[in-house]
């Protein structure tokens, strides 16, 4: 479905500009002859608008019009036909006549008018929308569905499930009725329906009296301050004075300052599960320099003792690298918009060929015969130049004069089609030899052949395709001279990737780590930092001779962990010597297959994410954020723009979090069309899960809360320091907000794009980005075991990165901060985990065990709060047939998350489980035993078979589910 650019203004082409008649001066003034007087138009009704937008009955009773089919009619043939309605261009796809197109336009106008009326009505509009939803027939019907009996958790879980299901059904129908309703709005309304149905109704009973009292005070304080519009002075003025006096640098911190805060609870959690991951090991190192380097390198959520004393946690290079995703998203969106224009103008290329034309144009001075292609190339030039200039400023890329010598009319990163070069090695070799053995500075043919082989070997074996200097220059044998691969792109066009999306996205992903490592550490290899760690250990060994063996082991571990995290950021850690080997490529393909066959319900599984904001920012602030979304506050619209520019809200475009959690991120280049096609299938499937939209909504809301707490000064000094903001920088951010910020509906919007203090803007963006990645758990370079980065490790550990990341960022991070909201937020997250269990069981047609111990255990398992500890329990239960583990101890059986997995799949990962399933199916077919079990196994091999909005229908005909 094409994405149409939003026009600057909307016009239906019927109304003339200005007024052709003089305004009457009284009720009885006659209009000019021949013109019928118009009756006084009534003011639009807020309640009618709410009913039309949020109640199914409005659409049901709207008469359906029939239109006469016009042969050969295409609404896109004439660009003026849908001018002003490009944003909803897909709504006209089935239009078969000009009259039907005009009718669709009228519907869109009505829906937009309803939105305007509700938005301008403020609180009345919000109240009317809620009321219209409450009297929706599906909502009323859901009220008569009996909830579960028994314990409190069972009752709450069932009510939330009923509310979510009812709202979801209503939203499906409303999306079919309305042209302008978005998936994001539907997801938000479903979330709100679930929360309103169960959580709000029972929140007071879910928490202890002490916590209930604290929460009540928190809400009372929030209500008391709701009218305050200039709260920025309150928190910022309480910080120490900025400038050189009071500004403390992390380099001055002691080992105690660099120790995780939180007392005994955090220490126990760190010892219980933190040993598995590199960042949690290094943060316990006896080396002060090792801890500082790890904090500067890897994003984390640890609260340090030094944060209480004014030491800010440094902005990690990893967070800076993640900020470059906005450029990556800009590439994708630019090409989508350009392609929509291309098709509207009558273009006949598919999307892939269009992107290849854009890439070719970028190699040739951004010039192309088609205006849409040329416009896309010129727009993307800004992204390429941004990366290029950053590399050149740091000495990572030659100046433009040297780049021009490579034989390109304009700079476009070279990414080789490795598979084609391997298949046609002799042909490509002859191309290089013939080029180097002719001209003014020719080589002998023998030397040219040696140089060509060396070049091909570097291209095929390069771990990072963008390793510019290594791939493009070779040394001639017996000479000190080097030869540059300056063969013009047009001569080796068949051996180069031209897809602008693929080339530029990969270029950004691989250039960004080099840029940020060099900015933070002075060199991408961290040479001086590693030497400082070595020297510090030498001093420790001299001072503590009895501990030399222990310190030597600690030094070895620190160097290993830090270099591993560095290489993970670059994308080379654990990569085999031959990334193009069959087994490596097969493993990568199998992980993609696992993703599209097993993660269709990942969005439902992510329901506990809703509690993360409460765990970090508290109940009232988080609910205020969701309220801004539901009420369509202008502050939320302004915030969305801010979050996109920060690189926070890019999941719908890139699906980066989903790919990280599914262990699909990998730096090796694709080698053939089949693998490229599988990548596209994976991307499409990721969008069908709606996980990107769900992640973006949650990240936008929590980013809004974080930004507001920084700009308003409501965040504590220690929390601001944890996010990387020193007292001096906080004062600079305060100053910039005073100049350029604004307060909308009580929310502080920074408008950081206008700030004249680039450093303050950068730190502010990094703080918000870091916090959203910690709230909506996004695994990082320090959050998974090192063995999980090897080819076999990736396969065995697939789908498990979230467990260790959640333990690091949510559990240890929350305990180290030690706030009240972490504890009651954890209870909330466990409740949502229990809800997820109930929803999954119901969707699969299985009985829900409403016993309190079962709900508690399932809630803990699905919340991720115990991380790898529950993984160990689940594997033990599977291995012993349920005879050993928490389920056996409490009499609840094995956990439902592992119910469909065999022992091989639970122990060795989904790939081995997939092979086990294929073997089972094959044996059944060959033996003529294609019974219900085999048919169910075949179903599990189908892409998208368990998408949460398709699976219930498939379950009706799946004999294995009966």
Task: Give an overview of the whole structure.
The protein has 962 residues and is mostly helical. Among the domains are: 46-125, no CATH class; 136-206, no CATH class; 226-238 and 589-777, no CATH class; 416-496, no CATH class. 60% of the residues lie in helices and 1% in strands. Strands 1-2 form a two-stranded antiparallel sheet. The protein has a two-stranded antiparallel sheet with strand order 3-4. Helix 6 packs across helix 39 (820-843), helix 23 packs antiparallel against helix 24 and helix 44 (910-926) crosses helix 45. The radius of gyration is 30 Å and the shape is globular.
Quick synopsis:
The chain is mainly alpha-helical. Among the domains are: 46-125, no CATH class; 136-206, no CATH class; 226-238 and 589-777, no CATH class; 416-496, no CATH class. It is built from 46 helices and 4 strands.
Determine the oligomeric state from the structure. single chain
Radius of gyration, CA atoms, in whole angstroms:
30 Å
Q: Spans with pLDDT under 50 lasting ≥5 residues?
A: 1-41, 140-149, 199-248, 465-472, 474-481
Helix content: 55-70%
End-to-end gap: 36 Å
Q: Which structural class do you get from the secondary structure elements?
A: mainly alpha
DSSP strand content: under 5%
How many extended strands?
A: 4
Estimate the global geometry from the Cα principal axes. Answer: globular
Q: How would you characterize the largest beta sheet?
A: 2 strands, antiparallel
Number of helices: 46
Mean pLDDT across the residues is 80
Strand order of the largest sheet: 1-2
